[in-house]
């Protein structure tokens, strides 16, 4: 009797716990789903019903009495010349009357002063310039874009560590602005201004976060294919595209944008800032746009969209550039992947796995192809991977 009672009791507890669990899961998913559905409906309605992106008018230009020649970032939307604390003008050649290097890709990684380990992981893996040179004979230049540590107390310690780091690797580009979320547009401007001044010959420019993984061999192969079809290497801005995204007006959001900063109901199309590539001509156009546009909007991807819109450039979707999401770990994915977001601790292991020669040998041929397509459908077309590559990408 007593045993029985205990069993029932246990069962009830289990039932209660299970119910709670299920409820929690449903609630969490519903919230996600709801958010997802609502934001999609909104962006689709802007895209297909309103279908008008004429909002951006000259109110975004800075008034002509504020015009400037060169410099970077904004005080009240105007460019300011932030001083370079670390710079490497000779990174792409061209110093002391020497000829410039034939750079395929200038790779900017947006980093923060304290992220020493992330930078090291990138240099050791996908950002290894010598690897690309040795394996593919291509010239890639990697530099890190930084501001200064926002905390005054830690700044001098961090700066001297950066000094040592830069002494060894010579790849830090730092300007004298606070490295904060709301100064990301300053970092964007730094990249396009540096590129314009010191590496204008680069065929492509990439901007990437320091917590993404780039499958460099696949990227280089893709860029070379574009170059071989001359027309496609121009006017290119490629990544994971956000179309018709509405500004977030909830004050508690990190991405909150007030009406006086951006009065219109939708942003121009832009690519996720986690990682995108532009061709050299587009980089030059963006540079020009930063000279005349008001840069007080602090979401850097959106500012990029505004610059591009002003210059008549529109972004292109590529199925294997991820937005916020992390790509599934599978060789059939590695065969195509370009970027994946959210990698800090597993960069080394992923680099090993993704560049293993068997990835290529096993995905080829009729059977390999068939197997991988099925595998990718299983990985990408299930709802819980909605944040990375789209289901469509499974069929490429
Ligand atoms: C730009 O658009 C805003 C909002 O629609 C409007 O208030 C403003 O008058 C426009 N400015 C110009 C110069 O057309
Ligand atoms: C605003 O800037 C854009 C982009 O440079 C330019 O095409 C346009 O003529 C400018 N408009 C005014 C009114 O200055
Ligand atoms: C840039 O836009 C902000 C917000 O709309 C405004 O306060 C600022 O005066 C503008 N700056 C210039 C230089 O036009
Ligand atoms: C970078 O790549 C080269 C060439 O493949 C290799 O010899 C070197 O060890 C790599 N560097 C690091 C830090 O892994
Ligand atoms: C951006 O950097 C500048 C220069 O250091 C600083 O004055 C400003 O407060 C920073 N802005 C934000 C929002 O952190």
Automatic annotation (TrEMBL):
<keyword id="KW-0328">Glycosyltransferase</keyword>
<keyword id="KW-0812">Transmembrane</keyword>
<comment type="similarity">
    <text>Belongs to the glycosyltransferase 31 family.</text>
</comment>
<dbReference type="Pfam" id="PF01762">
    <property type="entry name" value="Galactosyl_T"/>
</dbReference>
<protein>
    <recommendedName>
        <fullName>Hexosyltransferase</fullName>
        <ecNumber>2.4.1.-</ecNumber>
    </recommendedName>
</protein>
<comment type="pathway">
    <text>Protein modification; protein glycosylation.</text>
</comment>
<dbReference type="GO" id="GO:0030148">
    <property type="term" value="P:sphingolipid biosynthetic process"/>
</dbReference>
<dbReference type="GO" id="GO:0000139">
    <property type="term" value="C:Golgi membrane"/>
</dbReference>
<keyword id="KW-1133">Transmembrane helix</keyword>
<dbReference type="GO" id="GO:0047256">
    <property type="term" value="F:lactosylceramide 1,3-N-acetyl-beta-D-glucosaminyltransferase activity"/>
</dbReference>
<keyword id="KW-0472">Membrane</keyword>
<dbReference type="InterPro" id="IPR002659">
    <property type="entry name" value="Glyco_trans_31"/>
</dbReference>
<keyword id="KW-0325">Glycoprotein</keyword>
<keyword id="KW-0808">Transferase</keyword>
<keyword id="KW-0735">Signal-anchor</keyword>
<keyword id="KW-0333">Golgi apparatus</keyword>
<dbReference type="GO" id="GO:0006493">
    <property type="term" value="P:protein O-linked glycosylation"/>
</dbReference>
């Amino acid at each position: 009797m007593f045993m029985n009672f205990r069993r029932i009791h246990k069962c009830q507890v289990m039932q209660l716990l299970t119910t709670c669990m299920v409820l929690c899961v449903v609630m969490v998913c519903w919230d996600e789903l709801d958010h997802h559905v609502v934001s999609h409906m909104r962006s689709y309605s802007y895209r297909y019903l309103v279908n008008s992106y004429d909002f951006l008018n000259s109110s975004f230009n800075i008034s002509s009495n504020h015009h400037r020649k060169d410099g970077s970032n904004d005080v009240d939307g105007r460019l300011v010349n932030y001083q370079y604390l670390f710079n490497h003008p000779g990174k792409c050649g061209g110093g002391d009357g020497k000829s410039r290097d034939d750079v395929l890709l200038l790779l900017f990684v947006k980093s923060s002063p304290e992220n020493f380990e992330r930078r090291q992981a990138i240099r050791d893996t996908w950002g290894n310039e010598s690897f690309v040179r040795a394996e593919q004979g291509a010239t890639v230049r990697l530099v890190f874009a930084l501001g200064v540590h926002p905390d005054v107390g830690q700044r001098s310690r961090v700066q001297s560590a950066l000094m040592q780091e830069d002494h060894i690797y010579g790849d830090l580009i730092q300007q004298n602005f606070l490295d904060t979320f709301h100064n990301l547009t300053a970092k964007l401007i730094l990249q396009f201004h540096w590129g314009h001044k010191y590496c204008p010959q680069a065929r492509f420019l990439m901007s990437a976060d320091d917590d993404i993984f780039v499958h460099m061999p696949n990227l280089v192969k893709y860029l070379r294919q574009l170059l071989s079809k001359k027309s496609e290497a121009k006017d290119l801005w490629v990544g994971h595209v956000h179309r018709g995204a509405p500004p977030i007006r909830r004050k508690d959001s990190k991405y909150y944008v007030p009406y006086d900063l951006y009065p219109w109901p939708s942003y121009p199309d832009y690519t996720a800032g986690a990682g995108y590539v532009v061709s050299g001509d587009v980089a030059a156009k963006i540079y020009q746009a930063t000279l005349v546009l008001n840069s007080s909007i602090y979401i850097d991807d959106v500012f990029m969209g505004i610059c591009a819109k002003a210059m008549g450039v529109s972004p292109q979707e590529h199925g294997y550039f991820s937005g916020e999401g992390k790509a599934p770990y599978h060789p059939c994915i590695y065969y195509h992947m370009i970027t994946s977001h959210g990698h800090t601790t597993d960069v080394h292991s992923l680099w090993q796995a993704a560049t293993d020669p068997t990835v290529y040998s096993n995905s080829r041929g009729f059977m390999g192809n068939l197997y991988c397509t099925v595998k990718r459908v299983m990985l990408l077309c299930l709802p819980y991977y909605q944040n990375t590559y789209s289901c469509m990408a499974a069929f490429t």
